[in-house]
Automatic annotation (TrEMBL):
InterPro entries: BUG, Bug_dom1, TAT_signal. The lineage of its organism: Bacteria, Pseudomonadati, Pseudomonadota, Betaproteobacteria, Burkholderiales. This is Extra-cytoplasmic solute receptor. Belongs to the UPF0065 (bug) family. It holds the Pfam family TctC. PROSITE patterns: TAT.
Length: 330
């Protein structure tokens, strides 16, 4: 009798646990189906006004309308984007905190002694939004083609200089790959932003600079700047006459820079998939494509698994470049 009673209590307890688990699972599923139930925060780890910030706001407004919840863009710049990314890495894994990032996300951790997070472990890829390219540009006094420029630089080591957005930026890393492949030596002049690079390049204070297609097109029309080559695997739509580095025989610069969306690791896959699908819908709108195209950005969306593979490959590739060139931020 006693044994039967214990057995009955055991099954009753097991049934209660199963019912509780079922209720919890149902509640979680309903919560995910109802997502978002409150405002969503979109962290931009760069200052206001740049292309990344413009993209975030161009994306946030229609997403907010689609979700019927505000998408709040929050700029958290610093340390190559790591401050803003760390905010998202340490947020609750519920999809309410998103990150709009560049390849610096997987590059910068290699340049500091103690990175606060691991981008592949602590963040989940939602999807690529678009790609961009950089243009190696010469002053009006420099040769008109890249082969001529390389020949001149080789004959006068360290006589010529090039400007980038700063030490450890994507522009700096691309130039390290290019100079190693070209066998040329140039003096690196780091700047804070693109405008002073263009100003000094036009004024002849530096020989070469890495600039966006939009800036180059503006000044190339007047002959003040000479575009020599673009990064990526296709020519920039704004500068269709300018060859890629790949076309000119220089390897390792064919990977276009991406702008992509992430959230906190551990976020339910159903929420990640929903955000990804809704973002693709928004990015397909002709007005957004036109607006971003005017900034030199090419809309090219990918789904979570494909974007995760891209970030893994980029982390491995740029990690090697950074180690080989001993690039440090601390």
């Amino acid at each position: 009798m006693q044994a039967d009673r214990r057995k009955a209590l055991h099954w009753l307890g097991a049934g209660s646990l199963a019912a509780a688990a079922s209720t919890l699972g149902l509640g979680l599923a309903r919560a995910q189906q109802a997502w978002p139930a409150r405002p969503v925060r979109l962290v931009v780890p760069y200052p206001p006004g740049g292309a990344t910030d413009v993209l975030a706001r161009a994306l946030g407004d229609p997403l907010g309308k689609l979700w019927q919840r505000p998408v709040i863009v929050e700029n958290r710049p610093g340390v190559g984007g790591m401050i803003g990314a760390d905010v998202v890495a340490k947020a609750q894994p519920d999809g309410y905190t998103l990150l709009l990032a560049l390849p610096s996300l997987v590059q910068t951790p290699y340049m500091v002694a103690k990175p606060p997070f691991d981008p592949l472990r602590d963040l989940t890829a939602i999807g690529q939004l678009c790609t961009s390219s950089l243009v190696l540009t010469g002053s009006s006094a420099m040769p008109r083609t890249l082969p001529q420029m390389v020949a001149l630089a080789k004959s006068h080591p360290d006589k010529f200089s090039y400007g980038t957005y700063g030490i450890g930026t994507g522009a700096h890393l691309y130039m390290q790959v290019f100079l190693k492949g070209a066998g040329a030596e140039l003096v690196h002049v780091p700047y804070k932003g693109e405008a002073p690079i263009a100003t000094d390049l036009i004024g002849g204070q530096i020989s070469l600079g890495t600039l966006s297609p939009m800036t180059v097109r503006q000044h190339a029309r007047t002959g003040k700047l000479q575009p020599l080559a673009v990064t990526g695997n296709t020519r920039a739509p704004m500068l269709p006459e300018v060859p890629t580095f790949q076309e000119l025989g220089y390897k390792g610069l064919d990977g276009p820079a991406w702008l992509g969306l992430f959230t906190t690791a551990g976020t339910p896959q159903s929420i990640v998939d929903k955000i990804s699908a809704d973002v693709e819908t928004v990015m397909a709108a002709p007005d957004i494509r036109q607006r971003l195209g005017d900034l030199g950005l090419i809309v090219k969306t990918t789904q979570p698994a494909a974007f995760a593979a891209t970030t893994r490959a980029d982390q491995a590739y740029w990690g090697n470049v950074i180690k080989e060139n001993n690039i440090r931020l601390d």
